Amino acid sequence: MTMLPPGNPPSSELGPGSCPAEVGVDPGGIPTAPIKEGYALPEHYFNRELSWIEFNARVLHEALDERTPLLERLKFLAIFESNLDEFFMVRVAVIRRQLETGVLLPTPDGLTPQQQLRQISQHLRPLIQKLHECFRQELVPKLAEQGIHIRNFSDLTEAERQELREYFDRRLFPLLTPLAVDPGHPFPYISNLSLNLAVVVRDPETGKEHFARVKVPNTLPRFVPLRDGVSFVPLEQVIAHHLEALFVGMEVLEYHPFRITRDADLAIQEDEADDLLAAIQEELRKRRFGSVVRMEVAKSMPPAIRQRLCEELHLDADLVYEVDGLLNLGGLMAFLNLDRPDLKDPPWGPVTPPRLRTASVSEEPVDIFAVIREGDLLVHHPYESFAASVERFLEEAANDPQVLTIKQTLYRTSGDSSVVGSLIQAAENGKQVAALVELKARFDEENNILWAKKLEKAGVHVAYGLPGLKIHCKLALVVREEEGSLRRYVHIGTGNYNPKTARIYTDLGLFTCNETLCHDVTELFNVLTGYSRQRHFRKLLVAPRTLRQGMEALIRREMRHAQAGGQGRIIIKINSLTDPEMIRLLYEASQAGVEIDLIVRGMCCLRPGIPGLSERIRVISIIGRFLEHSRIFYFYNNGQEEYFIGSADYMTRNLDRRVEVVAPVEDPVLKQELKVILDICLTDNRQAWELRPDGTYVQRRPRPGEPVRSTHQRLMERAAGRA
Predict the structure, then answer these.
(1) How far separated are the first and last CA of the chain, in Å rounded?
(2) Catalytic-role residue among 241, 242, 256, 472
(3) Mean pLDDT, range 675-681, rounded to an integer
């Protein structure tokens, strides 16, 4: 397989799209010097938040696409909803705080906070309407055709209603707490992302109406299964049709579901915190009471009740989102547990990397340290097994008598993590173990605090990182005594040490005992755990010290090659591209003659294909069965090709406010493997979306007679073939 030729993207049915204002160029087509000031023009950037909404729209498209298996379509609806929750909890919350505190500086694309909020609303409301129309009008009937029924309580038979009455009495009634709202009962606290019922009852003795709130428990299934195992009723409807049991003697007049989203972004003054763990615990307590940034209400809710909720929650009307259907469709994810393989993606079991396999099950397991000594090892998850590579590496290190020290960074991991278990086992075996636990990993703070305490209790040296910086790099270092001397082994990854996400996120991991790389990693751990001011590394690019400058140097080198009459070529695969400086540099590279392909799954604020500015830049996004998470950086370097992998995106936070690591992949065989991965992504005509100059994305589709080239399918087939 050969690298996609520069300037020749795969065939598709896309049109040229519209272009923003052109920039000046000299007769030779190379930008004149003064145009450098024009790089910062607002029309050269897409808005970060609107670009994220475009990404989530691509997620929603997987639910709308009839080629996606039926239960997988429900999954994508749930992912869309979950993504939206986090978007409001963090991004919308931050913008609203800017507005409230008078920070009115425009974004690189020129939008003020108020303008951003207005455009976010304008872009989101049609998508939310499309989401619910898809669920109600298309997916529910299709599920029924397959014998799976999501039903309204009002449509049930008498026997089925009696069944749910028993369920209510047995499982629901003891959990419910009706809360009155009157002069003697203040409006209750409404927890973040909770589903609630606004209830109006009337006292038959006085004729007076009263308002109350009932919280729908989030500890029970979102959709209650009937005994037949194929019929499901929304939990809030089961509660709503038994409200008389909660308001005995009252007449229930009406009920209306609503749901709120709160500001959940932590604000930690690390330089003033004597104990970072205690400071984060305090902020987590405050998070529960963050200001409300969104309220979702059923379309049937009368204006008077909606207005009352807005007043009680101190909420502007423009933050109310009307839903024509069920609220909180994130619970649809549970339908993937149904035993209906015919309605899901074909099962995939990650294969053991070829170099780690034995010829037969009766043989002794391959010595992973011996394999690494033979040459660097690259693993690609979820196509290749995380358990058979990363978890095994740590497990063997924990139990190997020759291993003296293990050091590891932990950003996110699963609740039943064998990774943490191996670190604890190593400490109990008398090894020196150090763990960098990032307490500020958003929405994993509580989980990481628990792990940090458990590790400390086992004797692991736990550090919480550096003030003002998140430890986002993915590193594991093992020091082993061999033949009277010490040898170091390192794992450098693009994804978290999380066995669960390793089954659905695409990530790369490099195992090496290269002395120079291992020395760099050792010095970086000294920076993270001690007071080292190490600023230079031999091979690693480390943020915030050298990564930005290193990437800039690599890009500028391609520019020099192109300007000297050679071929300048860059391919970058990342999750997000939002940093204005990197975008300006890529524009400059395009104008210098460098051909650039960007594979950006999520946000992309760069405008490709603009004459005189970015006509040599092409951008695609790949959305599908797995979540694209690996970061790969390719530079042609006048034929001396260089590849890098790492944990960083081209975002300001990654380059300047996090500890990130990008490492070179130097083994020719492994470089070829990365080349194949990039080729497969760039020639995808099923999951790839092309970004147009006007900001819209168009999905590639095979032309008549052209074979379907799906990135995830091809990589699964390739892994299975090698197994």
Answers:
(1) 19
(2) 472
(3) 98
Which residues have C-beta within 8 Å of that of residue 71, sequence separation ≥ 6?
Answer: 335, 336, 338, 340, 343, 344
Kindly state which CATH superfamily the domain 33-44+542-722 is placed in. Endonuclease Chain A (3.30.870.10)
Residue by residue, what is the 3-state secondary structure of 78-102? HHHHHHHHHHHHHHHHHHHHHHHCC
Closest CA to 625 of 684, 714, 713: 713
Write out pLDDT tens, residues 363-419: 788 999 999 999 999 999 999 999 999 999 999 999 999 999 999 998 877 666 789
Dihedral of the alpha carbons of 118, 120, 123, 126, in degrees to the nearest 10: -90
Task: Give dist(CA 557, CA 538) in Å, integer.
Answer: 18
pTM score above 0.85: yes
Q: How far apart are CA 607 and CA 142, in angstroms?
A: 39
> From CA 208, how far away is CA 82, in angstroms rounded?
40
Whole-number Å distance between alpha carbons of 420 and 455: 8
CATH topology of domain 354-535: Endonuclease; Chain A (3.30.870)
188's CB contacts (< 8 A; 6+ apart) are 179, 181, 213
- Greatest pairwise CA separation for the chain in angstroms: 92
* Domain 154-343 identical in fold to domain 354-535: no
- Whole-angstrom Cα distance, residue 707 to residue 698? 19
CATH of 154-343, one of 3.20.20.240, 3.20.20.150, 2.40.37.10, 3.30.1840.10: 3.30.1840.10
Answer yes or no: 472 catalytic: yes
pLDDT tens figures, 165-213? 999 999 999 999 999 988 778 888 899 999 999 999 999 999 999 999 9
- Rg of the Cα trace of the chain? 28
Tell me the residue length of the chain.
Answer: 723
Q: Where are the alpha helices (DSSP H) in 134-192?
A: 140-145, 158-167
Alpha-helix runs per DSSP H in 299-417: 303-313, 368-374, 392-399
Task: Average the pLDDT over 330-357 and give the result.
Answer: 95
Whole-number Cα distances in Å, 283 to 454, 608, 658: 21, 41, 20
> From the centroid of its chain, how far is CA 27?
45
In whole angstroms, give the CA distance from residue 2 to residue 219. Answer: 52
The full set of domain ranges for the chain reads: 33-44+542-722, 154-343, 354-535
**Distances from the Cα of 338 to the Cα of 61, 125, 537, angstroms:** 23, 31, 51
- DSSP category for residue 186: P
How far CA 692 is from CA of 114, 578, 620, in Å, comes to 26, 17, 9
Q: What span, in angstroms and rounded, lies between the C-alpha atoms of 703 and 13?
A: 7
Q: Distances in Å between the alpha carbon of 384 and those of 204, 489, 527, 715, 716?
A: 67, 20, 32, 10, 9
Strand partners for 209: 202
Q: Coil, strand, or helix at residue 643? A: strand
Q: Which of the 8 DSSP states describes residue 464?
A: -
Enter the tokens of residue 206. Answer: 């006085």
Bridge partner list, 572:
598, 633
